[in-house]
Design goal:
- By secondary structure, this protein is mostly beta strands.
- The chain is globular and about 40 Å long.
- It has no helices and eleven strands.
- The protein has a domain of 90 residues.
- It is found in: Nucleus.
- GO terms for molecular function: transcription corepressor activity.
Length: 149
């Protein structure tokens, strides 16, 4: 890859044992902290970039925050899980966000209407990871259905 195609920002989540819970944006080439987001009240477990300036983070505080670089508060906050949210993943078009939790549910959130549009409850154990299929709108296979695993 060329220097221009390398990722520019890196995101981390931290928890300083009761003192601070922060999602930090780092400039990958310099190692400089460019912004900190202190919105979660407990450790952040996952972060997923939507595009070059927005991302979502999830936490053991049962919440999901959608954030934008340069903003000092979340654009959206989703609540609905009853236990820690382990992972989040944007669909290929960035219109919906999937989340999975220790509450044994997988939820799909609609960005346009700010609500949970599907609550998938057939798991009988905690769910730790999720992935969208490489099909559907916004992918190389736009005429095939989009699936979540």
């Amino acid at each position: 890859p060329t220097a221009n195609s390398l990722p520019q920002d890196l995101t981390t989540g931290t928890h300083d044992y009761g003192q601070r819970t922060t999602t930090i944006i780092w400039e990958a080439h310099t190692g400089q902290c460019t912004q900190q987001f202190a919105f979660h009240s407990a450790p952040a477990l996952d972060v997923d970039w939507k595009d070059n300036c927005s991302f979502a983070s999830c936490s053991t505080d049962h919440t999901i925050h959608v954030c934008r670089l340069g903003c000092d508060r979340p654009l959206k906050t989703f609540q609905g899980h009853t236990h820690e949210v382990n992972a989040i993943k944007w669909d290929p078009q960035g219109q919906i966000l999937a989340s999975c939790s220790d509450d044994m549910t997988l939820k799909i959130w609609n960005m346009k209407h700010d609500n949970c549009i599907h609550d998938l409850t057939d798991h009988n154990k905690e769910i730790y990871t999720i992935r969208w299929s490489p099909t559907g709108p916004g992918t190389r296979y736009p005429n095939q259905d989009l699936f979540l695993a």
